[in-house]
Design a protein that fits this description.
Elements: H1 2-11, E1 55-56, E2 60-67, E3 70-82, E4 85-90, E5 99-104, E6 110-115, E7 120-122, E8 125-132
Antiparallel strand pairs: 1-3, 2-3, 2-5, 3-4, 4-8, 5-6, 6-8, 7-8
Amino acid sequence: MKKDTTLKLHTMKLSAAPAMAGTSGKPKRVGEPPAEKIARPRPVAVEERRRSQRVLLRTRAKIHVALAGKLTTIDAITLSVNPQGALVVMSQSLPVESRLVLEHGSTKERVACKVARPAREMPEGFHVPLEFDSPAPAFWGIAFPPMDWRADDE
């Protein structure tokens, strides 16, 4: 019985209310939350939908950006990449919509991009999401998995 309770804890919201008949008039099992308390998947907001699969890839990069009217180069490391951009970690944050040029650390290829969303400050630095002006799947030098690809649950 304890095992069943543990499984339920991982799949539903907990309710402090005592067990009682459900809203449909049917009796419910002890420990089962009311129908309105069951966790339901929320719709995915438009800005959260992925256009392609992200790939975890750590590679050096340089950010070329004008700060206070002065051209500045900031060292960065990618955390994840996709054909539309990357998530990089760097020593400072940049404002959303900042225009910049991302330089691949190995190939020295450059691509124009912008800061897509606010950076998150983390212990290792600022996680800054970048979006290319136009998709550049060859920029990273890797093959990306198809959109319907899923890892096996082993």
